[in-house]
Amino acid sequence: EKMMAAMLAKGEWQERGLAEKIERSPAQDDEDKMRPISALEAATLSRKWVLLGDPGSGKTTFVNYLTQMLAQQNFENLPAWQKDEREILPIVIILRDFYRWAQSKKENSANSNLLWKFICHDLETKNLLFVDTLLEKALEAGQAILMLDGLDEVPPGEARAFVRDSVLAFHIRYGKNRFLVTCRVLSYQNEKWQLPKEDFLSFQLAPF
Q1: CB atoms within 10 A of CB 162
Q2: Which label site among 105, 178, 194, 195 has the fewest CB atoms less than 10 Å from its CB?
Q3: What value does the mean pLDDT of the chain take?
Q4: Does residue 101 contact residue 89 with C-beta atoms inside 8 Å?
């Protein structure tokens, strides 16, 4: 975790309520808005965010690590995690698999139900469909964290727009939950594939 650093997105300093009420120079403001923090701190502070990184920088590794800690309710490295969310359920979705499934079902119109149907499909393939009611209750109560991994691994064009719109529709339906989306830096530079900045903060993993 020490090797994984995230660059704080513009505006995060103010969101955390740490803005100083004194005169500051523009250089000081720029420094505060790009304050480096650990990826785990970013996960703690931000309910909805996008983790950017170069290929092989550790995005999926971080998703798996965070998922394991939350599933085991191991908060040793997440001491600031809200106590009322310590039973939060991590739900991992590989976005390229979601897109392939949607193609196989000839689903072409993004809506809030598609990701849920894929979650149930994924559970069924693992013989875990019996936990779908538990996950649904967690989503309705805002006690889940959606780990949406690999937006960049969906082909650009209509396919990626479809996946992004499906994520947004699910976010609107289950907005009380936490969301983490991962993507390569270059793929996310095009505004067509970006999630709304007013809802999702962006962080970039520093090089190892």
Answers
A1: 20
A2: 105
A3: 86
A4: no
